[in-house]
Fold these 4 entries.
Entry 1:
Amino acid sequence: MTPFPYAELFSLLVPQIILVLTALAVLAADAFFLRAADTPVRIKSGVVLSLIGCTLTIARTLHTPLQANLLDGMIVLNPLVQQIQIVLLLLTMLTVLLFVSSSFTQHVSEYLALILLATVSMMFLVSTQNLLLIFLALEMLSLSLYILTAFNKSSGQSAEAALKYFLFGGTSAAFLLFGFSLLYGFSNSTNLTHIASTIHGSSLDPLLIVAIVMVIVGLGFKVAAVPFHFWAPDVYQGAPAPSAAFIASGSKVAAFYVLYQVMVIGLAGAEGGATWHTYAPGWVPVLAIVAVLSMVLGNLVAIRQTSVRRLLAYSAMAHAGYMLIGILAHSEQSLPALLYYAITYAVTVLGAFGVVALVEANTGGDTLAHFAGLSRRAPIASFCMFIFLLSLAGIPPLAGFFGKFYLFSAALSTPAPTLGLIWLVVLAVAMSAVSLFYYLRVLKAIYVTDPPADAAPIRTPFVHNLVFGLIAASLVLLGCTPNLLLHWLRHAVDLVASR
């Protein structure tokens, strides 16, 4: 009998262990040494400890084995997984920095610990190809996000958003678990590659079709795709700004990666077809419908929004539709293009929420009227918001433009006897043009509309200016030299494919 590889398993999980210990250290430091200190001091101390823990975790992640597969796909490590985990940790660090000047809670250490534990869940989520651990990691992540959403106890909107998030999340978890149980019953395995090996033949089993629909419903909730989006506008509006930024950035990257894994690896052989004038049953036509609904509804409803938070929520649905095109393509080019888009989008929306938090703290709201004349009151934050919104709209030479370009190119390069997915790309380009209208509405309020007569200059914390500047510079840099990130991702994908 082969002994259980405890030592190897422990060495592979050291990064997650470091992050858990960091969360415990933040809680202990606040409870034993800083409880009598002022809240700003406690926040800064917790933030410093969190940043140190994330830095140590990144350092350890870079020294973990580049190839490992333990316990029937429970833990799968490769260069691509390592890179995604590093990206998630960097997004966590940016989120923690945005928390520095927050005042919505006195429970500082608990809030930071939940962010760190949510990151641990995301690291597990992207490093497994087993249905059981995928489900457990998703639920651990969801529980942390529910609490982070409700953390502003003085806000009724925060409590309402968390309740809706929890109720919809519980329902989606039931769908996902039912779909996973059907896949297990169909294949007698929870490993994605083993499940794919049982799918064969030109016609799909009816139970497999039901499982596909259930899984898409469950994971569609996690990525806020239409029609599983009902939680997103309230959560984006009601949650504390750092929580909303974290939900819109890090969790979105992890969710799209696991959606790609389940569809492309676990359901290989059940793709079907959604090319022009050619239809075949499978997960591709179902995801194509979801992508169309997300792009159309997300962009059209965003036009009517006066709350910038809700505008970003409906915009997120549209971007989810764009990213689904990368999964539909499921070619050699599509995974690096999808990850490039997801990473640059996550960084951009995190910066946008940081500016929204700044405006809320100084004006008391997030409507377009509250952004009036912001360029005269906070010029650095306004210029960074200018870059963020134009990148979300896909304007060159920013990273958002090249993200769309590579993603749509991957969809057009899919081999097909007909016009392939060109109909979906044409729709995506048209909806991107629509999105420019509502992003320009925000910029009009910032740069064209006059501020209130009694409006005073906004003092932006140095840390916020630093974060905004780093994000804006990265978007310009990745837009002018996109291969800095894309080559890194392509190299990792090629290494995984070669093994």
Entry 2:
Amino acid sequence: MKVLGLIAEYNPFHLGHKYHLEKSKQITNSNYSIVVMSGSFVQRGEPSFIDKWTKAKMAIDNGIDLVIELPFMFSVQSAELFALGSIKLLHSLNIVDYIAFGNELGSLDDLKKVAKILIEEPPYFKQQLQEYLNKGHSFPMARSNALKDFSNQYKDQMKTSKDIQNILKMSNNILAIEYLKALISLNSNIEPIAIKRIGSLYGDEDLSNTIASATGIRNSILNNGINSIKEYVPTETFRHLVNYIDKYEQFNTLDNYRQIIHYLLQIDDKKYLTDIMDIEPGLENRIVAKSTKYKDIDYLVQSITTKRYPKTRIQRILVHLMANLKKSLFNELSTHYPSYIRVLGMNRNGFKLVNKIKENCNLPIITKFADYKQYNNIHLHKIISLDKISTDLYFTGLNNTKPFIDMDYYTTPYIVKK
């Protein structure tokens, strides 16, 4: 049994994801696949375009064997924390042989060198990083500049085939570096594999390429209707998108939460906001001040965004605010993570994987949501309660004629037995 691990959002599952899965299985000669997938909200600080069970259905019907939910407390975080939470979960299963992730380079040599420096943090690098932060740069930009300076100063230690800053401009490269850092820090035996990204770049907004980005697909659905993306997704994905919109009537976006966000920003004391995850001292003043001027969430986010505080970070803060995810709570729970394995979908091979996990891992495997109550573990309860909050919040954002409440209790994993 060779097991391939993947980390994804599948928002939605498209032809690029299909290529990545098939290429990864071919290169690693794996006959089983597990994906750790974000649930109701995604890394860039937005609600998932479709609900997590629809995403799980897409994944299983397109060839994934087992879908495990990445808990909310890690799914809406910086690239570093998102990667750490995902890798920790895969590592804890004790059955994964490979992890394959896409990047713009198609190799890991340069990324491993960068990851090594970021873990070791040599004095010159730390000095330059702090200087750029003091100048008001965002952390990713400050880190990129500091790495560039370090590579120029210590060419023998940091010789890469491509310019450091060009490497770090690409979102998939950044995530790949964070995955490598997490693997190293955990001393994991999981072997990383790089798959070169093909087609559109991450975040491309148009559909000029057959393998389009998820961003382009979502934008086209919102602007031109669901039929506009039929040739850019697998047949199984399109079928589940149609079923989703028939059932829920609306795809989800952050602007659907404008009333909730503005209400919370008006009633909460600024001192309360300072403990919300990802907020630095002083940023709460800017957020509250701008919220009195802009109702539209896109305009609000853009008005708060600065060189130091990128758009995605502001969006994540707004999601954390709605879910009441505080720094103190995150710090408490992260030392007890992972506490469980939440199954969202599986096929026949997935059943075999679950049995193998039971043999090699002591973590509770939760298929029926209510079963978490039988475990006398306060940290498990707190982490999974955040998942429930995020699910309830997800469906609150949909302007349905029918309310959807407690969906974690009422929705079972997607199981294909053939």
Entry 3:
Amino acid sequence: MDRPKTNAQAIQKETSRRLNRFALSFLLAQALLVSACASYQTEVRETFDLMRSGRPAKAAEAIKPKAEKESDDQIVYLFEYGTALQQAKQYQESNQAFLKAEDLTDIKDYHSISRVSGSVLVNEGMVQYKGEDYEKVYLNAMLAINFLALGDREAAQVETRKLNEKLYKYKFEAKRDYNQDPFAFYLSAMIWESNRQWDDAYIDYKKAYELKPGLPYLKQDLLRLARLSQRYDDLRKWRREFPDIKPEDLKGKGEVVLILQQGWAPKKYPHPEFPRIPKLFPIYSFTQAADLVVDDQIRERSQKITSVADVAIKTLDDAYSGLVAKRAAGLVTKAVVSDQLRQKNELLGQLAWIGLNIADRADLRQWTTLPESFQVAKVSLKPGKYKIHAEGVSDSGQPSGERSDVIEIEIKSGQTVFIPWRTLK
């Protein structure tokens, strides 16, 4: 007579044991997920620290296995790998990494329903990282700098066009509040001018001026190129607007252009008001600009063309409401799933609620090694040989202690030499 009761008790006991085992497995899975996020942050931190300490080749070596391995984080590792190689002056290899990253960001990703659902239920780290919009845009800026360092101006020009084409699509097709980038137009204009394509150069200088009229270089540029392109009505207009500016005559001279990548882009942390989503915070840079130094006699201070930090922060802030809505939906989903489990097993339901919320962390993946800003310094020189270097400058105008290697270059009439440099402090 007692046998059925004993069997029922045994079945109940076994069911409870299995549920408890499932609960422990579930918590272990959440712990592993959190651990994976921490591991990712550690990997990026190592690369960042190595680059900041002036060991880019070592940084590239450390991140290379991650960049070459297919994973949900491959794109962001390729960003870091390409930047480290660029800083190590391995421009060809850097291009290969950046171009692969661009190919991956261009591929339409079809996430499975289970993975998308998982990203709502747990966190955004469960889906493939496709890059923030601003990262995809500045990828082309970094490629342009690489091509200039390699002497391929045509390819550099292509990258500047692609940069603004992306911004145009974001603004007019995706309906996002983005402006075109003055750095892309200014860099493009300098390349056109170096190739003696005066009219194209004038058009891009004018576009850069429309986006950033306060840039001092542009006043001389517009006067000079309006004359060279024989746009005499525009020349008279600029003379009226800039009566105190006398354009330098570059006839018979060459030019050295320092392309400065200053500082470090802002870093993602959990949002103070809603820790389940990220927020970007600026990283302080002691070196705020640089002097282009020629033969220890001529000095020209760099001028900021674009603030990557401002663009990045605005981009993520604009996405704030959408990110909050998605994580709020995630909270509702967690409550439903936990309640369903709680109806079968109180302990399992409680553990599920705790585990799901522990795992719901802000997605802090990002391109950490982007610069804070892109800057330019230009010096015109008579034909001859010169010793050139750059020196970092603090916000007080004093030397920051950073200094590039001295290089010897030969300037020819009508030639432009582009020199990239990155500050780290």
Entry 4:
Amino acid sequence: MPSDQIDPSLLRQSAHSPSFFALQRASPGRHDLVDFCIPCNPYFPTPGMFSRLAGSLEQILKYYPSDADAIAAELCAVLGHHPQTVVMGNGSTELITWIDHLLVRESLATPIPTFGRWTDQPMETGKRVDMFQLHELLGFEFDVDAFVRFVRARGSRTAVVCNPNNPDGGYVPRREIVRLLDCLIDLDLVVVDESFLDFVDAEAHPSVADEARIRPNVIVLKSLGKNFGLHGVRFGYLVANPALARTVRGALPKWNLNSFAEFVVFLLREHGAEYRESLRLLARDRLLMAQQLASLPGLKVFPSQGNFVMVKLPDGKDGVGLRDHLVAHHGVFVRECGNKLGSTSQFLRLVVRPQEDVQRLLIGLGSYLYGSASEVPPDNVVAPGHRWGEGEPQHAETRPEDFRAAI
């Protein structure tokens, strides 16, 4: 196999997608792989922040970080939380692990499909997982009343809801989440995983972290790596009442965060405006990308408030074959959802990326789905260098026949 080709068998070796590093190692001659798999913020950190990181690399690697309490105190000062209600972890998955070990008793209820650690982790420790199926025909919409009835019928003692949900990006308004917390006040624990909430633009103040601080059985989970485009740093945090927070904090190592996490947390105070601008740009790209995907004949696009969009392939098309085709022939890495409980390989989760990358994705999708001989992008693809708002909005009026003509 040429050095610039990726062996598709690498994509089938585990239940999770391989890391970006693993794919690069498997094809050392390929340097243009575009990642539509890992939900990362492409606009943050800024180039200036990366320059400061690079300039401080020797110190970051050479010296111990501060302890977790000191780093958490700075994060709370920046984000407006009380330190007694916040626990920082080495990625949100570390916190999920300890929530399960310390606070989940015999059962946990969660909608599916959703983030896999919320089903896998409790099953690994012998708990019963009660899975509430979200339905495609309803757009994977989450119904609070139906979920509460399900929890009561199953006798679940813990409930978990991701908002927005992963992989579909479905968003539940804050008022409905608060109503859910009211309905489940008697449970041992209710977790609202807000890992992707910063990308929501449906309402101004979507978080229920303020509710978690004063309720007896609520934890809100946050993933800084996803929001800030720094998955490699591995840091996240939870918000809960002081007693719950103290229980989780007491189980964690004192130095569970690395120096990269500390450096970034102390940089955030200076770069709030740039972060807010990154969210605005991403929301713009999400709208345009969803419209462009919806113009492909037979492709179903689901509404999303995350930094990703879920699509369903036309009948007879399978995501495994498409994934392998895209990575081998177009250098595009996507997440097919066949190994997500409650989903099938006919569904893909596609990360929101800038237009230059989306063009490659659309070309690859067209060549696989419609057997195009000449890989020409659809008319509604914005050309490199085109700025949002300039020219006519063709993407809103592109018809399926226009795309067929193009390919």
